[in-house]
Structures are given as structure tokens and as C-alpha cells.
């Protein structure tokens, strides 16, 4: 263990030196600032000390733009929030975030860059306005005093709405208990969000940018900055980690919703079909990662006990849940208030359908071992509280039981999901899917996604009663087209610049020269340059070069909203 820790520290120190050296080279070789309006970068929620993938994407993109002669301004936190998302201690909400380590890392990556460092000053009037509010009142609280130039004078900021997804994500739970510690943290988030709003608005007045590039737009510092920018009519681009190794998705829409445009005339060629099939073969064996994390250390077949039990029922219907922090995003909850509201409704259906075996599957990342990402409001906990697993027609598969979901799908009549990616995969396995929450792929006809609750309930009863469920042929075709575009055409590859770090989810820089970030030497930087500066507004339907089938991450585009 000591040798491992020493190796990790030495590796991270070496990466710090590479970052500083490259930052100096970028500063040295960037052209003098031109008269064009600058691009603003803001990312306060994707890392504290080392480089996460999303922190690296922001850094590399800003370096590439600077080397191309684009003025870049960074908005950087320097004790700018009393409590931030990643710095929230789930065991002690009152414990301040580790600002010193975060600022030290910020100084490394912004060495030689134009950076505006903002600090935290709580507003006494706002403090007084929220001090006696409960959780429900804080969650919808709005405030109207904003400094700076806004399009609509007197516009109120929906502070509560903008911070609630972050507190749910930080606490790894959807339901927020109305106790003093939760009220404290929610008040501090609101006060900090308002401080970001004030500082960011004044910053925009000062630098007058053309575009703002902001990490995901969902965590409250970036959400409030995105809201302020939009209120001023400023173009905003958000980004998130893509679905391929070291890839990023940039969009003028909501990056976490992954809005992608598939041309009507796009059909997979034989080579593309083979490429997708090879990916699916690996994925169906559990061989895939997301943001550097592998969810399936192994994948086991269904055992004889399960097969004997399932043979006693007319049909099998799996219920695939999601991690609660992925359902905390406001765009996910359309038919139901939240995922547990959906599960409560299904509980009643399960009780009156004894002929059907319902297999409730907890997401494999729900209780991620050895990390702070373990859910505090979990499906495991819901099952224990409701005793639903005591019903004779229920099997519960916990998150750490690595049974093959794909084998289960192939034995099922249809599949129930909230907004998990397993719905897309079930369609690819030619199994009907009834979806209860908005997912990234529900923008196209891929699964059965009712428009309201009554239609959902009627469709569920119909599926349970029918002998056969007919899947529209376009579902499978759209699923393959969507997955191919999501994997190979909608994200930008940073694989030439990044490698895995010693800590899960963190990355390090490959050995490369500043010249490798010049647009003429990097398709990824050229696409970012064209898209962010607005030189090429057709990026949503155009490849930079002919697609290279041998490249596992062909850079594609900035998607339209």
C-alpha cells in the first residue's frame, strides 16, 4: 500500500509538471490578443485537485483556442462559494470545502492565462430573506436583485430551482429531508449561487464576450452562470463527457440531455454496421467504461434457481432502475415526480399481477464500492422499506450482483425502465421497452414513451395483457442510427492528449507538444475553433473529414440545441 501511494503521488506530481510546462508553452506561443470578442470558460464543478475528464476537456479546448489567436477569459473560483458541489461533505454539511487544494490546482492549469478570480461575499438581504424558509420553500425561492446589464430589468433568478439538482447530486438522494442540516446546506447553496450570479454578471460586463463555454450547465455554479448568460442573450455552449473513451460532447443545448441531430438521409454503411456490431458485442459482455469507470467487473449468467422460478410464471418483466443522481436532472422527470414515485406506482401494479414475474434490477453503479458516489437514497433501501421482495412474483437483483442484464432482457416479454441506457440496448435486442422518464434517446422513436401518466398506465396494462407486443420497425433502425451517431459522430476525441490516471475517473496528460494543439494539427481543435467562434454554423450536419472507420473516436461536431 505505501508503494502504491508513493507511485500515485509521483505520477500526479509528474502530471502537474506537464500541465505547468504546457501552460507556459501555450502562453509563450499564443498570438497577441486580437480585437475580436473573447470566449469565456467556466468550470468550477468537475474537479478539486487532479484532472477529471471534464476538467481536461475545458483546459485543452481553451489552450487550442488561445493558440489559434482567440482571446480567452477564465472565470475562476477563489473561495467563491461557502459550499460547492464537489466540496460538500456528506457526513458533516457544516465542514467547509477544501478550497486551498482546489485553488492550488486552478493556479496550475490557468498559469499564463487571463483569469478573473471571484470570491464569496454573502448578501445580507438575501440571508435574511431565506433564514426561516423550509426545504420546500427554499427549493422554489426566487430573488430579483441582479447587478450588471440584463436584457429584462427586474428579472428574478430562480435560485431554488437552479440549486436543487446540485444538492440532490451532492447528497446522492432525491428526497430532501426538512431538517436543519439540509436547510443549512440549501441556504448556503442559494447564497453561493447568488454570489456567482453577481460576480459572473459583473465579469461579463467587463470582458463583453461573444460566447461562454460552461461545464454541463447543471451543477449550480455553472447553472447560474448559464442562466445569467442566457438572460443577457449571450451564446452558451455546454459540454459533458461522451460515451467513448476520452471523448466530449459539446452543444448549445443541455449537454446532460445529449441532444443530437441525425440527418434524415443518414443510414449505416456496411463498414459502419460492422463497427457498431463489434462495439455491441463488447458491451453485451460488460466490456465498457463511462468517464473512466467500469461498472461491470464481471458478468454472470442467470443461475438455475432463477430459471426454475421464472418457469412458474406466464411472463418475465424486468424493472431497470437508475442511479438517483442521474434522475435528479429536471429534464428527466416528465411522467412521474421522480424515480421512486414511479417505483411506488409499479408496486401497486405488481401486487395485482401475480402471473407476471417482475425482476427489479438496481443499477450496477448505485453502490459503487470504495467511492463517495454510493447512493444515499437507493433502490436497495426502497426494496427493504416496502418489503416488495417478499412478494412471490418479485426477484430483486442488487447493484453488486453482476448478473447479465442482457440475458435477462432476452428472456423477457418487455422491459420497464425510467431513463437508463439499458432501454436503448433492449431495443437493439428486439425487446419492447416502456419508458417512464425522459432519456437522451427518447428524442427519437426508439422506445414506447407515453406523453402523459394516463397513457403510460394504459400502455402498461395493455402490454401485460397482450400475448405479443409488436415493435414498430423504425425503433430498431433508429436505435442503431442513434447509438452510432452518439458513439462515433457526435463527440470529439481527446484521446491523443489524455491517458488514465491512477485515481478512478481522473486523467493525466499524454506527452505531447503545444504544436499538437494547433488547429491545423488537430481535427478536434479545428472543430472546436469553428464551432465556438461561429465560423461554421453547419457543424451539426457536417463531418470535418471523411469518416475514418479505423479511428475509434472520429471527431464530429458541435450539435445544435
Describe the structure.
- The protein has about 550 residues and is of the alpha/beta class.
- It has two domains: about 1-30 and about 40-90 and about 95-120 and about 200-260 and about 490-540, no CATH class; about 270-490, 3-Layer(aba) Sandwich (Rossmann fold).
- About 40% of the residues lie in helices and about 10% in strands.
- It has a seven-stranded mixed sheet, with helices on both faces. The protein has a five-stranded parallel sheet with strand order 10-9-8-11-12, sandwiched between helices. The protein has a three-stranded antiparallel sheet with strand order 2-15-14.
- Helix 12 links the parallel strand 9 and strand 10.
- Helix 6 packs antiparallel against helix 8, helix 7 crosses helix 8 and helix 14 packs across helix 16 (about 475-490).
- It is globular.
Record keyword descriptors for this entry.
single chain; 561 residues; alpha/beta; Rossmann fold; seven-stranded mixed β-sheet; five-stranded parallel β-sheet; 17 helices; disordered C terminus
Show the helix and strand layout.
Elements (H helix, E strand, L loop, with lengths): L1 H28 L9 E4 L8 E2 H15 L4 E6 L21 H11 L4 E5 L5 H7 L4 H5 L19 H13 L8 H28 L3 E5 L4 H12 L3 E7 L5 E5 L18 H14 L20 H7 L4 E6 L18 H13 L4 E6 L17 H8 L7 E4 L7 H6 L4 E3 L4 H7 L4 E3 L17 H13 L7 H17 L2 E2 L4 E3 L5 E4 L13 H11 L28
